[in-house]
Amino acid sequence: MSLSKERFNQLLEQIAKELDISPSKYKLAVSRYESIGSWLDSGDYGDFFGDICIYPQGSFRLGTVVRPVSEQTERDYDIDLVCEFQEETNATQAQKVKYRVGNRLKEHDSYKSMLDKEGRRCWTLLYAEQDGAGFHLDVLPSIGFSSHNNLPIAITHKEDDGYSWVSSNPKGYAAWFEERNISAYRVVVNEQKRMIAHSYHDIYAKVDDVPDQLVRTPLQRVIQIMKRHRDMRFNGDQKYAPISMIITTLAAHLYDNETNVTTALTNIVNKLAAHMSLLDNKLMVDQRLSGRGLIKRLADGTWYIGNPTNKDENFADRWNEDGNARAKAFFQWVDWLKQDFISIMFRDENTVKFTLEGCLGKSVISKVWRKCVPVAVTATPEPVRVKISHSVKPWRADE
Fold this sequence. Notes:
Layout: H1 5-19, H2 23-41, E1 52-57, H3 59-62, E2 69-70, E3 73-74, E4 77-85, H4 94-106, H5 109-114, E5 123-130, E6 133-143, E7 153-159, E8 162-168, H6 170-199, H7 218-233, H8 244-254, H9 261-273, H10 287-292, E9 296-297, E10 303-304, E11 306-307, E12 310-314, H11 325-342, H12 349-360, H13 362-372
Parallel strand pairs: 4-6
Antiparallel strand pairs: 1-4, 2-3, 5-6, 6-7, 7-8, 9-10, 11-12
């Protein structure tokens, strides 16, 4: 039996929900990063007496968080936090700011025991697994004056030759993403909050208590599915896998307020596929898409995918390395997206299930399949009635 588009869309919705962070886990994550924020805010930093601002960034803030997978095993959720000291870059050094955060975390007995080794940009706290899922909380030291606006900040960056400042704008990017998502959000917010409040009444006493960050539009669901597909398809070989920032940025640019996940995913993937001719330095056939310049091949052959909040930042700056290996991997992934989602639409149930298990994970599909695809009930055939007109007697009278 073939799977209808409506059933396929329901399946994708449930898959994304399964990959998402649950409201209970979300509340736990918020309480943990608020506790970290309070601890950092109350620290004694010697010559620093300004304000400190702690806020989430990345997928947790954008509503596109998805549980990572590696080597076919579910991993801990990654939660990214910014710790922003309100001061100028010329007033301090990157290394000093980095160790303000690290040393303060080490002053807390629990945080000290959970603290991982120093990362290039973050300090990571490894929370123990609870109910089958743990957290990695990455704290990003930075400085700036963006507590009341969306201006760029300076984040610490460590390399072999020392520490430096790198520009970033997590609040500005979040505001841009929310603007791309706002129309779809307004359509679904009331119904989704009612459903969450009903399902998690032990957490949220009323609908108004449900945070906006738990509402999911088709755009956010598509990004979650694409990120999981990326993780599975590049499993064990993540070096050239498309980075989440590129996936999120291009999907948000290409989203046209579609009302369901299947249509949104199909349109976004087809628009991405329209850029494949750039691999051979050829002009794109779709001039309307070409004119938007979302993925560019410049005159010198270099690649460009701009940060929508900072055009000077090129998300594809490494696509030119290793013989355009990341660009080739990106478009190979786009082709896989077409094979694994668009090509299997309306195919028989066994084909759909087998394909989705391979590209999204068998454990995830097995959990949602029965919810969305009812098991066909095979009717017991009525016994065939045989009419015997001249029966042979089992014995003869003369024997």
